[in-house]
């Protein structure tokens, strides 16, 4: 009977309930939507104001999703706070008392995060693309690359899961955010000049943020080599699983 009470679906529902009842959840998702759509409108309006601007689905997509990098940073921090906030407040003790097997708690948080965040990011990306198309100069509308659209919506959620794993691994909010920022922003910038030229591009493209960008990149003459979308999805998935697994191991072997 006790196993039934703490079955994974029940744990997932409990974590989902906690997530959707927090006002900060909706505030973060609203901010990310405003940034995604607002930057898409501002960038496309500025580009298409210039005479001779390129009018193609590739250029439109690249311009529309430039703001996704900012959303990746915000949702990554949000993923960290999903678990470090409970460690900081002490709520994690009550959670682990109700669910002694700790790994299902982390997995339930990951499921809740995906179910809540992905529809929001997808809706924001769709609206951003529609708004970008509306700003095109007179002419036939551009074809929307569906793969890039879903990639732009999924990339921030994947990085939020990586943030959740880092939060479980480190437990302290400030330290976890520092690790996340160093990994996502500083590491790629350092690796490029630090590695031999013939090795740098091959390594940097597999860094989480670079692989996430490749999920929604289009061929517009990008000077930096990027993974193909399929390889990018597999790479980001591997980083996500690795980080969550590391966080799960630490949860099992440390006291809250």
Structure, described:
- The protein is mostly helical.
- The protein is built from twelve helices and no strands.
- The longest helix has 32 residues, at 103-134.
- It is globular and about 65 Å long.
- The relative contact order is 0.14.
Summarize this structure briefly.
The protein has 256 residues and is mainly alpha-helical. Helices cover 79% and strands 0% of the residues.
Radius of gyration: 20 Å
Which residues form runs of ≥5 with pLDDT under 50?
Answer: none
Task: Supply the helix-strand structural class.
Answer: mainly alpha
Dominant shape: globular
Task: Give me the count of strands.
Answer: 0
Please specify the SSE layout and strand pairing.
Elements: H1 2-5, H2 8-21, H3 23-48, H4 57-64, H5 68-89, H6 91-98, H7 103-134, H8 146-170, H9 173-194, H10 197-204, H11 208-214, H12 229-253
Helix pairs in contact: 2-7, 3-5, 3-7, 4-7, 5-8, 5-9, 7-8, 8-9, 8-11, 8-12, 9-10, 11-12
Features:
12 helices; single chain; mainly alpha; 256 residues
